[in-house]
Structure formats: C-alpha cells, structure tokens
Amino acid sequence: MAAPESGDGNNGAARMVTLISSDNTRFEVEAAAASLSQTLQLTILDGGGGGGDGIPLPNVDSATLSKVLEYCIKHAPAAANGGAPNATAVDRAELERFDNEFVNIDQSVLYSLIMAAHNLEIEGLQSLVAKKVADMIKGKSPMEIRRTLGFPDPTPEEQAEMNAHMLEYGWAYE
Amino acid sequence: MSSDKSDDPEWQRRPAPRSPISSARCTPYHPGSCLVPESLAASSSCSAKASVMVNHLAVASRHGRVMPPDVLFDILLRLPAKDICRFRAVCRHWLSLTSEPLFIDARIARQQGPLIVASFHGDGKHVHLMDSSGRVVKRVPSMEGLALVRSRLDLVCVADMEGNCSVIDPVTGAVSHLPNTPPELDWWGNIPVTKDDSVFNAFLLGRVDSTGDCKVLRLSRVERERTYHLISCVLTLDDADGVQRWRPTGRPEFIVNTHSGVVVGDAVYYFWWTAMYPDPEQDQWDLIRKNGDVPDCIARFDLEAEKWTTISGPCLLDGQDVWTEYFSMLSKSSTLAELRGNLVLAHNFSSRSLLDLWFLIDTESCLWVKEYSIWTEQVIPSFMRIVKPLLLLDDGRILIFLGHRPGALFLYDPSNVVFSRLDTAYVDEVGLYTGRVLSLQSAIKVQ
C-alpha cells in the first residue's frame, strides 16, 4: 500500500523509498535513483516502497545492493536529464572515471553485479558489466574458453570441427 | 560432483543447432553457456584478473552458477568481430547464438565508427561495405567501368577519367548520374574543350558542414599544345533549383597531382604536381615560396566558399635547402589522408623503413605535428609507394591501405607494433561510409 504522503514523487522534496535486501538490510534511497531499475520503476510509480513499507529484493544481498545503489545514485542526475544532452565534458568525464573505478572489483562482486543488474534491469549497469566481462574474455582462444568453462576435452569429431574452423578463419586466430 | 547436470557441455547434450533460430531470446537455455565464479581472489593486474576470472569459471560450473542467455548475448555482442568469429569454435551453442540474424543485426547496429567501402579487384559491378575487421556487411550494385572515388560520407561516389560520375546511396540503392558536360577553358575566353584536347577528369565528393550540402569537385586536366591547364568546377547534389550543373570556380595557383586529392571536413587538398615542374627552384619558385620556411606545396579548395588557397607542407627533412629532394619526397613517397578530422601527410620513408604520419593540427598557422613514426620493415616493401592511412579506430589501431590496383588493407596496432592483414579480397580503391548502418536492412553473408 502506498503511503499517502508519497504523492507522485515528482514534486517537492526528493521522495525516498526503502529497499530490503535478501539478508533483511533496509536501504533508504531517493526514488529517482531506485527508478533506474526498470523492475522497480513501476512499483515506485505506483507509490510502493515509501513510508514504513519497503520493496523486498530476495535475489540481491546487502553487499551487492549497496554497490548497485552506489551506481544508481551517481547516475540518477544524468538520467533525470534525459541522458544529459547538455552535460558538460567534465561531467561526462567524471561519470566515465566513476564507471571505470566501479567495475575494477573482485570477480565475485562482479558476478553478483551482473545478476543484480540483470534482475533489476538497470540498463546502464548491465552495459557496464557486460563490457567489463567482454574485455576480460577478449583475445582468448576457443580451447582456453572451453577448458576454463569446464568442458571435457573435445571428442575427435569436435576437435576436427575446431581445426576446420581455425583453418577457415585463420585470421581470427592471429 | 561429476553427475552435476550443470557441468555437462552442450555438445554432448544438444543436437547440432545448424538451423537458424529466429530469436536469441528463444535460444534453448543451456546452463553451461557461461559460468561465473562464486568467490574469487582479487588480483592486481588486469590481464591476471582476466585469467583468474576464466579459471574460476570452471570452478563455478561445479557450483552451478550460470549466466542467463540474455547476459551472454549482451557480452558477446561487445566483442570485436574477430573474437566473435573465433569464439564460434568454442561450442555449438556459442556458434548458433552468434550466427543468428538477431545477433548479427544487433552487432552491426553497435558498429562503432564508419564502415569501409571497397571496390574489390576484378569486381567492377559492386562496391562492398565492410566493418573494420574486413567482414562484408553489404554489397551494393555499382556502375561497371566507373572506379570508386575515395570519400568519407554517407554516399558512395564512382567515376572515370572520361568525366562520368555517379553518386550511390547504399541504403536505398538510388543512383544519381551527374551530367558529363565538358569543362570550358574559361580563362582563355571560354574556348570549349575540343576533341583534340586530351582531358583527364578527377572527382572528389564532400559535404559542407554548415549547410549540409553535398558537393562534387571536378578537376579537369587539359593538355593543349603541350601545356597543361587545370579547370576546376563544382556541382551541388540536390541543388535547390533541381538542376545539377557544373559551375566553374577559380583554379589552384599551380598544377596539382589529381591523384593525390583527399577531403577533410569541408575542404579538399591536393599535392603540387612535381612532374609538371621538374625543377621547382627555377620554374615556379615564386608560386610556392611563401612566408614560412617550407614552401606551399599543397592546394586547398574550400567547398563552402568555393575558393582555392595554398598551404605549406611539414618539415620532412632536417636541412631543407635541397627543395628538389623535398618535392621528390612528396611526389614519390607521400600521400594525403584524413584521420581524426585532420589532414594527414603520410610519408613513407622507405630508406629508413619508417612511415611517418604528419597531422595538420592548425590550418591557419600550418602547424604540422609528426604523431606516428611506424616501423614498416616487415610489411611494406621498399618499392611500395602508395601507403594510405584510412581510419583511426577507437582502440588506437590504424587501418592502412597498401598498394595500388590492387592493394590490400592492413591494421596497424601501435601498442604492439604489429601489422595484420585484413581477411578480404584484393581491393582497387577504398573509402569510408559514415551512414547509419542500422538502415542497411540485413547483413548479407558474402564470401
């Protein structure tokens, strides 16, 4: 149920919403920041998450949620500006610097972020982590990827397919 | 442990998915498609991190942590075309995911920067649009007999020396044939060019930033009574009055090498034609010796104002009192190019196995800066003179066209000092296409 004083959340002082992580930690955050999540946006527009209520996020633990919200808070002003077409180069550079720092993290955190960004549908964060993972696997050979993904050694038939691919697309292996 | 289903590679469980699948979002879910760690040790260096990450992917697979297909789609989409091609060999799931039209379209839509337009050697009927890895994304019908004109626009121009010139829109396939009206020798009192005159035409296509008008510059070199004359005309595509006609402009102060032209922004640049002036010190010194230390050896045509001026070249030699040598360097081993919006003079210093790229940083003051000095020993034979840089990629690599009818495309990676040849047929000429690749409808798989 919406708290009556929540209104539309568009006027007056910044409206706050509460998010509850899987381990029951409560996070109070501006509605504008939480609304970067497509999943949460509708609930928040409907007045959810205000007052004593909170929006439970059973798939996101507190460590990850705190990281996710750090991202949302940083990006909310620019997003509110409609992608900030009139943002200065300095603003943009600052966001870029923040993003680079943000994904310079332990891989377990990165994985949690990937899942959280996916579940919460935070577009900017999804791109950011996808780009990070892409950068990490760039340049690897198919065998390296297979081995490390725990695939068993290829059968002779599979090996033949891989060899044929390498023969046909030699340039991609140089 | 070994019985954990999520551990099985899909090659063992799924039939070969060679048939096209309509949507990536409908790809049969496979848990082994991409697995990510549960807990990983932090690592300081980036490359070490990557390997730690991938090592832990294996560990993670035993824990059954999986990445949704959407996420895998999103990650693979961000890889360079070359990696995508290579990763098709990882497993059939990756092969099918990256071969789907939806994936290919999304990948093309993400394409950063312009596409390469090339006319392949021996194929006069088409021009091909390729991404920076050499993958053909579209084949466009062209006029047989007309050669591709180097440009950097959302249009493609083809022409011949006889004065035929057509402009093609690769999205719609619409072709505009420009009138082939002969030039007039206007400074001789409008004497029309006759059949006895030998006329050689060269075309360049550019766009005026301020108005958005596309203009074609036609330089006609007329030989009459053993003397060369240049006639310069422009034509505005889609002119307001609906009539496309060639308007005479002034002419450059000296005869330029009509092969050397390049468009940079809304200006066109040409070299001084050394063959015309065997001894610049005696013949035409007053034409080229301006204020600076280096002579004005480059003619510039402003497409907006439709006026010719001249600018000086970079200081190629330490002691430049031997101007004959300087001009010989220009004509024999240099090309003009456009990189990053700057005019670039590429000087192939073959005796030193160096390709120097000089950037014109400031047009007003003619400030040239040598930003690259590329070691070319393994790649560029000393006799190879036509070395044209084409494009600076976002990752710092430089696309270079080497040779002449046919030539080949190379990528130079300055950080690793490595040249690699693009996997394409031999090409006669190349340019860039800056149009919206989204509107290229569908990718055509061409050999």
From TrEMBL, chain A:
SUPFAM superfamilies named among the record's database cross-references: POZ domain, Skp1 dimerisation domain-like
Keywords for the protein's UniProt record, in alphabetical order: Ubl conjugation pathway
Keyword Phosphoprotein applies: no
Pathway annotation: Protein modification; protein ubiquitination
One of the GO BP terms on file: ubiquitin-dependent protein catabolic process
SKP1 component POZ domain segment(s): 16-75
Domain SKP1 component dimerisation: 124-163
Top-rank lineage group of the source organism: Eukaryota
Keyword Iron belongs to the record: no
Function: Involved in ubiquitination and subsequent proteasomal degradation of target proteins. Together with CUL1, RBX1 and a F-box protein, it forms a SCF E3 ubiquitin ligase complex. The functional specificity of this complex depends on the type of F-box protein. In the SCF complex, it serves as an adapter that links the F-box protein to CUL1.
Family: Belongs to the SKP1 family.
Oligomer status and interactors: Part of a SCF (SKP1-cullin-F-box) protein ligase complex.
PANTHER family, per database record: SKP1 (PTHR11165)
Identification of the protein by name: SKP1-like protein
Protein species of origin: Eleusine coracana subsp. coracana
Name of encoding gene: ga14711
From TrEMBL, chain B:
InterPro entries noted in UniProt: F-box-assoc_dom_typ3, F-box-like_dom_sf, F-box_dom
Domain F-box intervals: 61-111
Tree of life domain: Eukaryota
Cleaved signal peptide residues: none
Region feature Disordered, mapped onto this chain: 1-24
Biased composition (Basic and acidic residues): 1-13
The protein, known as: F-box domain-containing protein
